[in-house]
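Example record for the data management plan.
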Amino acid sequence: MNKFLIFIFVLVTINSFPIITLNLHMMSDEQATDVLLDVKNKIEQLAPDYTEIIFDSATPASYDLFFFIEYNASLEVYIGEWKEDSKIVSRCEYDPKGYKFYKDFIMECVSCPLEKASFKKFSMGDFSSPFRLTYHPALDEYPDFSPDGKYICFISDRIGGNRNIFLIDKETGKLIPKPVYGSSEYFPKFSPSGNKMVFQGSLHGNWNIYTMPLENYSRSIRRISSGRAPAYSPNWLDEDKVIYVQDHATSNYFVVADTRTLKRKVIELPFDRIFSPTPHGSDLYFVGLKEADFGIYKLTPDGSIITVEDTEYNEHDPCIKGDFLVFTSNRDGIYRLWAKDMKTGKVWCLTEDIPYDTFYPVFSPDGSLIAFSVYKTGSEPDIWIIRFNPSEESSPLNDLP
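Corresponding structural encoding:
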C-alpha cells in the first residue's frame, strides 16, 4: 500500500524572558493521520498560558523535536516517537485491542513537548503560581527537593507501568530516571547532605525501607527495615538515622533505625494508627488517627504529645519550614493545601485555585516553593508547584464561609 507523509510544523513560544521556543516537526503515515491530528489538537488545548502555538513556521527555536507516528500492521499497534538531536527521547505505543485507553496514549504523545517546556520553565525559576510541572498520563506523586535545590524527585510509573524514582535537574531541566528493577518505590526523601535517598520499596516482596546513594546507586541499595510486617513512609532524622512506620498485629508504630549499624528503636504512641513522621528540630510531627479522625500532632523530646491541628475535616501530610506548617485537609469538601502560622495560629488556604484534591506537600530548601501532587478527577496525579509567601496569604480560615 502506498503511504504518504503528513508534515506539521508547530512552534511553541513561551512568553517569558528569555523566551523558550519548541520547534515541533510532526508527521505520520497514512493510517495514523487522524491520530496525528489528535496529538496536535491536544497540544493546542493543553498548552499553558506561557506558550504560544504557531503552525508552519521556520522560526529558529531553542529546541527542535521531531515526532513521527505510524500504524504497524504486523503488530497491530500505533507507535509514536519523539526525537531530539537524532536520539529517541520518548516512545509511545497503543494497541486498540489492549488495556490502554486511547486518551492516555494521546497524553503520552503530548507530554513530551509540554514537559520539555515546563521543565525548562521550572529550571529558569520563571513561572506563575500555581504551576503544573508534569503532564504525563502516568502517576506522578510524592515529590521532594534536594537540600541544595538542584533536584526535585518524585515517583512515576511512566516506564512500563512500574513505580520508579525520577529526578528533575533544576539546572538543566532534564528528567533522570532512577529505576530499581523488580521493585515499586514510594515516598523518596533526600538525606540532609543530598548524597543519599531513603524510600519505601517492594524489592523483597512486601513493603520495606531502603537507602541508596544518589550516584552509582544500583549496587548499593540497602534494606533498613526488618521482619515480615509492612514498613512505609520513611524520613530522615539526620544523615545516618531514619524513621519510618511499621505495622504490627493490631496497629503500627514508629521505628528509628541507624543506617550504619541497623540498630532499631521502636516508638509506640497512644493512637489507633500513626503516619507521616516529620522531624523538625528536636520535635517529631506526625499524623495520628483516633476514632476515625485524623489530626496532626507533635512529639517533644520529653515525650509529651501536643495537638497541632485537629479538626473534624481530617489533617494529613505535615511539612514544616520555620514557623509555618503546611498540610492537607478537606475543610470545604476538597483536600486542599493549608498553611498555619504556628506563632499566631492563623490558618489559610494555599490551593483555592485548584479544584481537585491535593496531597504530599514539601517545601523547597529556601521555603519559597511548595511541590505537591494534584489528583484531577478521572486522571492520575501530576506534580504541581506553588510559591509560598506568608506575607501575601489569602483565604484566611476565619474569613471562609
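Summary line stored alongside the record: Residues 236 and 242 are 4 Å apart (CA to CA).
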